[in-house]
């Protein structure tokens, strides 16, 4: 080996070593900011999953700085490799990839003979309006379809940052209306037994869609018979609710990331993130208006007694409010809808997790609905964390509590 070659090899080895040290250092720094409660389901596994996710994010950031790829595309690719394994179609199901009015969907149909038209569920995946896909939601939709004997339509709606609000919601509406119009003739599904649902950002879309449809009902199509909301994100007015304070650094969704995702969905302007965390984005008169819906005293006693003292927010930033005010619209923050809209929404299933920043959104929403006379089923997972459904039947990534979550969803869907 000549001297020049040796120098090149030594340089490459040194670069790799420095790169690895930088990666490890950044991941370690990120992990120090996390808090994994001992009572959470499988804390060691959650810590490992968090390490993987942080590693992907940090590596993507480094690769983007080097000009090799975009961090978002790298993260999406890694998520697909980890979470979206294609498996053979199980006995008893027929799975078809289709498009409904140019929106990609995957339809899961039970093949067993049925003497009557089946129920249906239009499902919107989670992922903070930025990540997620039909493939990543595949295991969940397979299980719901097969175990509840339900035709499930999984929707591949457009994502941010390539598309902003209302693109995601518009896609969900287009698919839902189309499916309702052809359910009976195309899939032997009773259109009066079609529900909508989703997890996280997908649950936000389901709740917003039910409100939109309730306000625009023209009598030509039936409304969804129910909404299935799995740890829903329902408002961006208050990021200091007890669950946001208690779980602000619990994987997989930190408080700062929840703010980031809302802003990506809304406009992409993340420069105001800290003001949202500090609660300076809502004028005093609006805070007073929302207080009757967002007041922690509306939470159950067992939740309140674990809450920290409520943070006092002084003043607001008018410029920030101008940037985010559309985010306070019920189509982005369904929890902030007026009573006359909420009372027109269908029967509702709400699932919340104890160690989730979004926990109180779901609890407060189900309470409002229940107080307005809407039929509500609330399921709380006391050792659950945000995103647990995504790890259902994912091999070594599977969390046992995800089975409990899916079974509770199936039990509810069977009642429709």
Task: Characterize the structure shown.
It is a single chain. The chain has 416 residues and is α/β, with parallel strands linked by helices. 45% of the residues lie in helices and 15% in strands. The chain has 15 helices and 8 strands. The chain has helices spanning 3-32, 43-65, 71-83, 138-148, 167-187, 201-215, 242-246, 255-266, 273-277, 284-294, 301-304, 318-324, 339-342, 359-371, 400-413, and strands at 93-100, 103-110, 118-124, 150-155, 189-199, 227-230, 348-355, 376-385. It has an 8-stranded mixed β-sheet with strand order 1-2-4-3-5-6-7-8, with helices on both faces. The protein is globular and about 60 Å long. The relative contact order is 0.12.
List the helices and strands in order: HHHEEEHEHEHEHHHHHHHEHEH
**What is the number of helices?**
15
C-alpha end-to-end distance = 74 Å
Secondary structure: helix percent: 40-55%
Q: In total, how many beta strands?
A: 8
Q: Given the C-alpha coordinates, what overall shape results?
A: globular
Rg from Cα:
22 Å
